[in-house]
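Q: Here's a chain of 494 amino acids. Please give me its 3D structure as tokens.
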Amino acid sequence: MAQNVGSNFFTVKNLKLGYHFLISHTPYLFIIPAISALGFYNLLTITTLEDLNNHIILMLKSWPIIIIFFAALYLIRGRPRNVYLVDFACYKPDEADMMSKQQLLDIMSLTFDDEAVHLQKKVLEKSGYSDKTYVPEGIRRLPEKLLTFEESRKETEKVMFGAIDNLLAKTKVKAREIGIIIVNSGLFNPTPSLSSMIVNHYKLGSDVLTYNISGMGCRAGLISIDLANRLLQTQVSAYAMVVSTESIHCGSYLGNDKSKLVSNCLFRMGAAAILLSNCFSDSRRSKYKLMHVVRTHKGADDRAFKSIYQEQDEDGNIGISLSKGLMVVAGETLKSNITTLGPLVLPMSEQLLYFGYLIARKIFKLKNIKPYIPDFKLAFEHFFIHAGGRGVLDEMEKNLDLTEWHMEPSRMTLYRFGNTSSSSLWYELAYSEAKGRIKKGDRAWQIGFGSGFKCNSVVWHALKTINPAMEKNPWTDEIHDFPVNVPLVMPLSV
């Protein structure tokens, strides 16, 4: 019996956990004994009461100087402002906007030729979407009514204002208190701008700072968070609101070029509004604290630059082409991104293991050595990967060695709401909140991909345990139905 216990204890898993503990606590194992030894040595030099009195006086005189020195050093280096995520809201469209995959395919059958319909049928069958995703009215009325600029404006106003109204109701913040507005929408950029539409609708003050981010696709939401963070570093006691959305109308393609038809099957209605603050007084009521933002841009590589490319076909129809090498480009960009992120978040034990792998590969030229993938599960409790498609999620699960539990928010968001572009990451976070999974001290990693080609990461630290009974989000009324098993293929008929 004792022999079995011993053999079970010295497993690879337990040895690795012991290794992580040893490396993570190395500073304490060396520094504390060193300080103790120094203090003990000083005590040995004291032989009289006068020496002891002088020693105490010297310590009392020295500590204020030491404190002032380190405080001055800290101020000289510059202290970045903490940025807090007070709360966020995701828009849940009306039931009238709901459309099944079969209904969408029926509309496609009236709009495209047979070859194009069959291609989109295959994509829809393997999409991993439910029959409860949402499509704007303009698309639901094809081909009876053509897509128009006014329909795009109508769709965007509906989802933007819906998300913002929910956010203001949750936070109890008045619209006029918000000093920074950042809106990201990749394709629809009217004049006046989307941010101006918000200023007009909510009658914001003339001193509000407004920004619009366009053409950056599905990871633009995280770029907006980065911009908000940078702006809040220069403001005193300010609120910044980020609104992430996309117009499905503008992304629709009515031609027959195969490379451009896939996007018709992917995108769905959605929007998210996020309230950020640099006020310390907001830290007590905020949900999360922003820890890191890492952005990677591969636009200098022509293959990456054209992997997602908007262009006209031979008939003048505008659409977005997805290259066959898109998954390879995404993998390479992700690798570059996590190479930068790793040292910021991984425990020293994992960094040393990866460093050892690099030495073996680069210096000792051991080409047959298995690549070492850092265990990011040691750095994060939650992973929120942009729900761009089933293939993307499968690759991320494999490359990061994640479990079904880690992937559940992304897969269920893809199933229930589809690809809502840059707002999808917030539907995923809302899922985990509704499930009661977010605990105080948890670390969450949001990962977004998009045209350019870019990969962005944002890391959050949970400031409180989220009580799902106190939350109201798009999942609240139906969270008990999830997770569900998603078939690999859901047959449709033409």
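Q: Can you summarize the key feature?
A: Residues 291 and 459 are 5 Å apart (CA to CA).
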